[in-house]
Write a structure and sequence with these properties.
This protein has about 210 residues and is an all-alpha fold. The chain contains eight helices and no strands.
Length: about 210
């Protein structure tokens, strides 16, 4: 299942976005942290970057401001969902066995990062593919006050989503021909991201 999802994303991610349009981008942004499947659904930096390019080149019919508001809202809702999953099912997650969408090694790697960085993990963890899906869950498991979590997560979500989306948007405006190369740019970007994740996991598990 993981391999099938990955292959679809690598070779037809642009088609998925264009087929689903604005809605699919928002849903994937929510799912990344909202249902503990951020490691196997198309999401992250590449999705945001691509959304920005498509918005500026007409690939999707939505203005930048609207795109940012909806994606930030979807990302924050995903974090809130992850927080309450951790709060309600925290003990069960600690005992949960590996499944096609849940891997204990990712949770343990995130725990280590979270323990070392505390509140700043919610901000900087947004930019780490392995940490991002589990960060809100650990906040809920640690009984962090919800309003404190919401304020930190809200700030992190705004910075994370805005930065990659705006970069994509202005690159698309400056170089509109870049949209012709997205079928090549996206798989290469994902391959680099996957290599980085695997390298980080090996580093964490070797300690």
């Amino acid at each position: 299942m993981q391999l099938l999802t990955l292959l679809i994303f690598l070779f037809d991610s642009l088609g998925i976005i264009q087929w689903g349009g604005f809605l699919i981008i928002a849903v994937l942004t929510f799912l990344e942290t909202g249902l503990l499947i951020g490691l196997i659904v198309p999401g992250g930096e590449t999705l945001l970057f691509t959304a920005g390019i498509l918005s500026s080149t007409g690939g999707i019919d939505v203005k930048l401001f609207t795109l940012l508001i909806v994606l930030i809202g979807a990302g924050l809702l995903g974090d809130v969902s992850g927080y309450f999953i951790g709060k309600k099912f925290g003990p069960a997650l600690n005992k949960k066995k590996d499944t096609w969408y849940f891997k204990r090694k990712y949770l343990e790697a995130t725990k280590k990062y979270y323990d070392e960085h505390k509140y700043t993990a919610l901000i900087f963890g947004k930019f780490l593919p392995v940490v991002r899906p589990f960060n809100p869950v650990l906040a809920g498991m640690s009984d962090m006050h919800f309003l404190k979590f919401l304020s930190i997560s809200g700030f992190a979500t705004i910075v994370y989503i805005s930065s990659f989306t705006i970069i994509g948007y202005y690159l698309g405006q400056k170089f509109p021909e870049i949209s012709d190369y997205l079928p090549w740019i996206i798989p290469i970007s994902i391959a680099i991201a996957i290599f980085t994740v695997i390298k980080q996991i090996k580093k964490n598990t070797s300690h």
